[in-house]
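Practice problem: predict the structure.
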Amino acid sequence: MQAALKVVLEPIFESDFRSCSYGFRPNRRAQDAIAEIHLFGSRTYEWVLDADIEACFDTISHSALMDRVRKRVGDKRVLRLVKAFLKSGILTELGNEEATTAGTPQGGILSPLLANIALSALDDAFGEDWERLMGAASKRKYRRRIGKANWRLIRYADDFVIMVAGTQDDAESLRRSVVGVLAPMGLRLSESKTQVVHLDDGFDFLGFRIQRCRKRGTRRYHVYTYPSKKSVDRLKAKIRAVTHNPGTPLGAVLSRANSILAGWCNYFRHGVSKRVFSYLGAFSWRRVVNWLRRKHKGLTWKELRRRFCQDRWNVSWLGITLYEPAKVKVSRYRYRGANIPTPWVHRYTA
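Answer:
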């Protein structure tokens, strides 16, 4: 039922959502948000409000959310169904049902769309400021000339950043503005995860580390995006878990490690990731080889290589070869912004 309701509601609200929002939307992905940050970071937007909403999916106000839904949906049967899902309750581990007075359905198909509807209040507030005050390049230049700041919101679900061309005080004042916009929706910023940072110091967003650095051998500074240390550590923990039990068949170890490495590299291939890929390839190879030596303690290193290494080097078994991240081609992901196609926009804007 939630899936059927999403089919009805998503086209309606997609025609209203702004281009600065990327999470849980068709034809949009995390790399689009990173590309927009890279674009504005390369254009003197040096201060960053890196924000995170605390327990977003659990604390959204039902009344405020329903008010936003009613602005676009007039069918009372649909409204009653949305409200019923919001009030459906939670089944605990002990089998007891707890009422839900706030938040969206836990793990529900409809939850991401409802969260985007609620958080579109933030998009609208900052989007209207952008169009009214900073929409044209001439306006932005004039504002900087008289000492006023420019800013741009980029949001992916409940994680968002505000790029600021101005001062640290300008970024701090925008933090207070964000608090004011989120409060009516029953939301608040996470104090531990929200910070104002300079682009030269760098920050983590959607698994990437984004930082402005001097290009080696030159005096020019560029914005670089590469896998964050936390992302690398999480991947290494997964590879360690796969290669922990010597009793697991080699084919199963290689298949699981390959799927983990391939998915991770595909996500981070649009960035400065070549050196990290090479490092992770060597790390994974060492983990698998050490796992083999524990599994076959009676075999010499020469015999292990003869049995399990293709070309006496790459670990292989029954046609499955250990994935080599170093061979993944990296490329720049180009900013698309408002040019991202929306499947239903032309049908529902009338």
